[in-house]
Amino acid sequence: MVSENGKAVVPRHVAIVMDGNGRWAKKRFLPRFFGHKQGVDALVRVVQACIDREIEYLTVFAFSSENWKRPSDEVSGLMGLVLAAVSRYLARMGDMGVRIRIVGDRDAVSDKLRNAWNEAEAATAHNSKLTLNVAFNYGGRWDIVQAAKAAIKAGVPAEELSEARLGEFMAMSYAPDPDLFIRTGGEVRISNFMLWQVAYTEFVFSDCLWPEFGEAQLDAAIEAFRERDRRFGGVKEAAPALAGA
Ligand code: IPE
Ligand code: IPE
Ligand code: MG
């Protein structure tokens, strides 16, 4: 959505690093798993809020390439939670007009999870209100490497490899680059999220722990985004003509 002065009122594409689930649980003397469980509910809330605000793409970081380093019970808890979330929320997401797309390396996940992802994508493929990209077993570096491999396999000659051409092979080539990047949980880093796509994205870091994130925090991030002056390397206004020229 664009205002009269041409500035985006609402970002078309929002990317979120949903961080802070473990600390949310710890504060309540609960196992980390409960934080992840609450995190799923926060995601469903935020999906609805994005639809209400006419945001077209929401990309969420659900499991990074590096999250395999966590204790095995946490990793298996997360995998089980994803399966449970798909069976619990898939129909609702479909009714809401959400198209689900999974981005990341699917080779390393179980057949059961891979099948659930395929089912979620197939069941929502016709929806167009909001595209929800779930980055799972995803890393920005993985994405660049897989794109390079795919370009080589497609026979793209080195002389033809440009930013635009390589971009066609990136995992989210169907979506515009994110306008707004939000990270909850207080850390101020990218943690290998969409490295290629965030070249000119506006960043908002929030201390809010992900399970507590909702409409008010989303609106605050959008408000901060609106105040940014996006120049994309250019200048704000045309340079004044040189005196006497
Ligand atoms: C983010 O929350 C969710 C995943 C990485 C799956 P964390 O689990 O990283 O929560 P904190 O950062 O330990 O609080
Ligand atoms: C980033 O959070 C990944 C996800 C939210 C899925 P992490 O908690 O894994 O990031 P670091 O380890 O603090 O950088
Ligand atoms: Mg974390």
Globular, elongated, flat, extended or rod-shaped: what is the shape? globular
Poorly predicted runs of 5 or more residues: none
Total count of strands? 6
- What spatial order of strands do you see in the largest sheet? 3-4-2-1-5-6
Beta fraction of the residues? 5-15%
Per CATH, the architecture is 3-Layer(aba) Sandwich
List ligands, each type once: 3-methylbut-3-enyl trihydrogen diphosphate, magnesium ion
**Which series of helices and strands comes N to C?**
EHHEHEHEHHEEH
Overall structural domain count: 1
Helicity, as a percent range: 25-40%
Rg:
19 Å
Mean residue pLDDT: 95
Characterize the largest beta sheet: strand count, sense, and whether it forms a barrel: 6 strands, parallel
Highest CATH level, the class: Alpha Beta
Structural class: alpha/beta
The CATH topology comes to Undecaprenyl pyrophosphate synthetase
- N- to C-terminal separation? 39 Å
